[in-house]
Amino acid sequence: MQSLPGPERTDAIDRLEARLCRKMGRTIETFRLIEPGDRIMVAMSGGKDSYALLTLLDRFRRRLPGPAVELIAFHLDQRQPGYDGEPLERWLENYGVEFRIHAQDTYSVVSEKVAEGRTYCSLCSRLRRGILYDQAEALGCSKIALGHHRDDAAETLLLNLFYSGQLKSMPPLLRSDDGRNVVIRPLMQCAEAEIATYAQGMGFPILPCNLCGSQEGLKRQRMKQMLSVLTQENDKVPGNIAAALANVRPSHLHQPELYQAWRDFRSVESDVVEA
Ligand code: SF4
After folding, report:
1. Which domain CATH number covers 102?
2. Has residue 216 been placed in a domain?
3. Is the model's pTM score more than 0.90?
4. Does 107 contact ligand 1 (Cβ within 6 A)?
5. What confidence tens digit (pLDDT) does each residue in 127-141 have?
6. Does residue 243 belong to any structural domain of this protein?
7. Which residues does 74 contact at the CB level (< 8 Å), separation at least 6?
């Protein structure tokens, strides 16, 4: 790793990096996200979260015992109008990590197929995911790391609750339906505000995220705004949502299979305690 262009690192940024790394390490350990010898594709959108993910993972993997964990940064140029990925490419070159920039015109496909007045995001992200999965396989990667964080998980939880009638969020680890890929989200327990401060302090050259001209999923924006209002009233809200995701009471939900599985689990647990 070479020294990076950008602002001087301050003690405060060093401390923040250590804190984020500790939180990420706990998530990795709890959900066994990384194993020795893994080759991990780090999806780089050029946004703050992806830069933070790459630098934190790089710091983390250097301390791991056993066969080395390899990282390969991967950026997809979707041929959006006005796109300029050069700042990211220069940064990656300087940083010294293996990387690939892959160009594939999903923009034309999306703008052709999506009816006027509808947002592009759903089809766009589905296409992007397919390309990531194919490329990860082609590059011999055992896992794909995404930069989603605690606040993304909270927004997704509310989106699913309000608009899909499902009680689910973003998992830290997910095997794709066809079993070809494993997706990991090491920053799942890190707060967006801390990642933003870190990204600013590190001077990452952020690529603008609305080049496609589409309105970013309006419902997600509404969830973000709602959480922001609630957080202004009570700053414990984001942490409490994250805590709730790790503190589920199936006995107080209404799904019969889940209720039964919970009862079976509890009775096995009490047998073990009594034995
Ligand atoms: S904001 Fe643009 S690039 Fe992002 S998912 Fe939506 S359409 Fe795709």
Report:
1. 3.40.50.620
2. yes
3. yes
4. no
5. 999 999 999 999 999
6. no
7. 41, 42, 43, 44, 99, 100, 102, 132, 135, 136, 139
